[in-house]
Amino acid sequence: MTSEAAFLEHVQSGGVVEAGDPMPDEYRALLVKFTAMHGNSELMGVLPERDWILRAPTLQRKLALTAKVQDEVGHAQLIYRVCEDLGAPREQLLDDLLEGRAKFHNVFHYPTRTWGDVGVIAWLIDAAAIVSQKALLKCSYAPYARIMKKICWEESFHILHGRDVILAMMNGTQEQRELVQEAVIRWWGPIMQFHGTRMPAESDLVLQYRIKTKDNESLRQEFLDGYVPQIRELGLEIPDPALRYDEGEGRWLYTEPDWDELRRVVSGHGPASADRLELRRRMRDANAWVRRAVLADAA
Amino acid sequence: MSARAPSRTDALLAAADDELILGWRDSEWTGIAPSLEEDVAFSSIAQNEIGHARALYELAARETGGDADALAFDRRPADYCCCPLVELRRLDWADTIARHWLYETADAVRIEALAASDWPELAGLARKIQREEAYHRLHADMWVDRLAGGEERARLGGALESTWLYALGVLDGQLRERFRERVAARLPWFEAAGEPGVEHTRGTHTAELEPLWDEMTMVRRSVPGAQW
Amino acid sequence: MIWEVFRQEREGAAFAHAGSLEAADEAFARAYAHELYGRRNESRALWLVPRAEVRTVDEFVDEFERNYRRVDGYSLKSRLREARERAGTQPD
After folding, report:
1. pLDDT 10s digit of each residue in chain A, 299 long?
2. Nearest CA to CA, how far is B39 from chain C (Å)?
3. ipTM over the 0.90 cut-off
4. CA-CA-CA-CA torsion for A55, A56, A57, A61, nearest 10 degrees?
5. Could you confirm whether domain B9-222 is CATH 1.20.1250.20?
6. Which of A22, B9, A82 is nearest to C21 (CA)?
């Protein structure tokens, strides 16, 4: 048996890999790409939400949202550290992101328009993310699986915060309810695209190496199982007339998401991507002297 | 601001407004701080400030009526009691650190005075705030030491200079002198001279407050009286 | 500089590895660890060690199955039965 075949058998039978262990180049490269995208997404997810910290309508919401967004930055830190220990320097990762060479999740490419978005993002998008993140708890690469524990623990507060924001608005005025409904309509497309296209397991290398332990469609179904009832019980409409649970097939049926849009958006051509990347690029350039000041050896 | 006899909530509102507006400014670094680790640390400082503002507003509301949110958001910009220092938009890291260090030093002087108040609730609250701000001072000192000890001392010096007169405007009278002494003792290389003008001291507002207030209150004002 | 962080969750608990962070020197490492691993009061205390100072020991050999050092190296069942039968105390 070749060492690659032995490695594959090891991870597929539940074996784990540590940072210093020998691993196939393909596995390392896949991990770097996967974790970089995850880290990029956490970081880029911060930018649409930070504006709303400044605009939060009560002190409690301001504090909760600041803490939630702080957690996202913290998650980026955890994930980038894992990626760095696989051989990718942080400055390189950030450069790739800011120069448009790296990918991040679709949802963070869209503008946030109202406080309704704040609620929907914390409630539904974080929910979609947590479904993926729970599946990563069993990742074959142990350093990544370990940080996922902390990440999942922190995400559980975020969803509660999101749901609380939504419930306050749904129990408020007609205007507030309309804000929520409008946000659900705008975000439903990106949410359905979030978990990615259906891919046969044999051609999904990330699945083969047990970096992911569940395929994209299972994750999407799990999200729908959990959250369609939660959305409908508030009297909110989901903008997909084809969405229904089919007892016979034992799964949710829905209108096929626009995969072309996903492809375009993930490669950096989403509506708000350019502005956000520009903001981070400007600050990185303006702050370059700070990095030099702290990277110089301590006196 | 209306002319009336000073009340014991004046000092409270001044501190609360300072913390709220500075917390708002510090939150502007979210997602764009010099490093991810620093982003998390600085965000905690912003959260602490807003938390302090909330506690101070809650205490003030017991006297003035209303609630903390109403005090924080429903006054007109001209009625806020914050000092000009906290209103300044400073998206350069050296300027931010200069303000951070100077404000924490002034705030420490103020909080010590409040901790000695004969209003027991205020004294108790001041002591809680003091304990939490130990981290802020540690953080500010760490940055000032690092920058002052290296190639960037001139940059830090320039930032301190452009912030200095505003920093003097945080406090007045005896407290301002105490603040001056602490800065001189801690940063002997920094020439802390000059007197603040009207534009630097509490009682005036900069042109930056109104756009800040507009953004800060836009959601709240969009559905007046609503629960959020 | 990379620092390894160990956290003690509550009084009496062992310090367990929690993660790592990048910081220029000890002052920065302390300040950052404080918030990365303590902002929710989830840690009673933290240990910080520069990664370069950590030593790994991971070559363990057990060629001769020295089970006399472990609990699974002792099976008392049959001897105990024999002794009880002799003493007439073996339950039916």
Report:
1. 788 999 999 999 999 999 999 999 999 999 999 999 999 999 999 988 989 999 999 999 999 999 999 999 999 999 999 999 999 999 999 999 988 888 888 888 888 999 999 999 999 999 999 999 999 999 999 999 999 999 999 998 898 999 999 999 999 999 999 999 999 999 999 999 999 999 888 889 999 999 999 999 999 999 999 999 999 999 999 999 999 999 999 999 999 999 988 888 877 667 788 888 888 899 999 989 998 888 765 43
2. 9
3. yes
4. -170
5. no
6. A82
User: How far is A165 from A167, CA to CA, in rounded Å?
Assistant: 6
- Tell me, what amino acid is at B153? R
Cβ contacts (< 8 Å) between C2 and chain B: which residues?
none
- Does domain C2-53 fall under CATH 3.10.20.520? My reply is yes
Query: Which residue in the set B44, B138, B145 is minimally distant from C39, CB to CB?
Result: B44
Chain A CB contacts of B152 under 8 Å are 289, 293
pTM, full prediction: 0.94
Instruction: Tell me the domain boundaries of chain B.
Output: 9-222
A74: closest CA of chain C, how far (Å): 7
Place of tokens 């991040």: A104
Testing the interface with B: which of C3, C20, C28, C40 to mutate, by most B Cβ within 10 A? C28
Measured between alpha carbons, how far is C2 from C39 in angstroms, rounded to an integer? 20
Which chain A residues are within 8 Å of C21, Cβ to Cβ?
77, 81
Using a 10 angstrom Cβ sphere, with 0-12 exposed, 13-18 middle and 19 or more buried, the burial of residue A275 is exposed
What are the backbone dihedrals phi and psi of residue A240, each rounded to the nearest 5 degrees, phi first? Answer: -140, 100
**What is the SS3 assignment for A190?**
helix
Q: Does domain A3-295 fall into CATH 1.10.10.10?
A: no
For chain A, the domains span: 3-295
Chains interfacing with A (3 or more CB pairs < 8 Å): B, C
Record: contact C20-A295, CB cut-off 8 A: no
